[in-house]
Amino acid sequence: MTTSRNGRVGRRPGGPDTRGEILKAARDSFADKGFTATSLRAVAREAGVDAALVHHYFDSKDELFIESMALPVDPRQVAARVLDGPPEQLGRRIATVFLGVWESPDGQTRMKALFRSVVTSDEVARIMREGITQMILQPVSQTLDVPDAQLRISLVATQLIGVALARYIIELEPVASADLPTLIDRLAPVLQLHLTG
Fold it and tell me: Taking the CA of residue 58 as centre, how many other CA atoms within 13 Å lie in the half-sphere pointing to its CB?
C-alpha cells in the first residue's frame, strides 16, 4: 500500500516496470505454489498492484503463466545446440544443455515453477507437452534414423525429468550436491544408450 500525493491510501498505480514486477511475482508464486494454487489476486498482492492492473496486462492466469514462464533459453535454440555435433555425443550434449538451464538461478526458479505447475494442471501439462514435442523432441528424434525414435527420445525425457526432480525439487543426496561435470559424466552414457543403443 502507498499514500498518494492527495493523501489517499491504496495500491500503487502502474509504473514503468509494473508488468515486469507482475511477471516476477507470478514466477515466484508458480514456483512456490504451482499453477492451481496461484491466483491473479494473490499475484497482484505480491506485486503491490491492484488486481485490475494484472487483468489489464494479462487476460487470464494461463496467459500470465505462459509469459511468466518464458524459459531462459529459446527451445528452438536448445534443439539446435543439441543437434550441433556428432551423433555419438548426442547424450552428452542433451545432458549439458538441459542441466545448464537448471543451474542458473533464474533458470532454476522458472523451471521449478514449470515443473510444479505441470503436475498440478492438466491444461498446463498439455501446453508444455505440445510445445516441447514440437520444438525439441521432434527435431531431435528425426535425426536418429531408427523406427522407434520417438520412444527413445521419450525415454531420454523421462531420465532428464527424474534427475531434475531428484536434484532441484526433492534435493535427494548425493545427486543434489554432486558437481555438474560429474553428473553430466554419469548421465550422458545412459542418455546415449537410449538414443543409439
Answer: 22
